[in-house]
Specification:
88 residues; 3 helices; alpha+beta; four-stranded antiparallel sheet
Amino acid sequence: MLLVESCTPIIIDKDHERVGQWLQTQGACQYNSAAVCIGLERNGELVAGVQYEQYTGVGGSMLVSLAVTGRLTKAFMRYICEYAAYEA
C-alpha cells in the first residue's frame, strides 16, 4: 500500500549531479558538473529535469536542457521558470 506522502511530487534542487546524470540518460544533454540541475521526483523516481548552463549574464542568454517522462506539476513549472528569470 502506498502512503499519500510517497505519491507527493518533490522538487529536487540540491542534487545537481543526480538530476544531471538522469538528464544525460534521457538523451537531453551531456551532464555538466558546473551546471545547475533541477528535477521533479514522484514515488522516488525522477520524472522531469532541467539543466541550466552557459549563462552569459543579465540580459544575456543560457542553454536550457529539459527531459520529461511523467506529468509535470504547476509548482515545478513555476519553479524552473522563476529560476531562469531570477536566479541565473
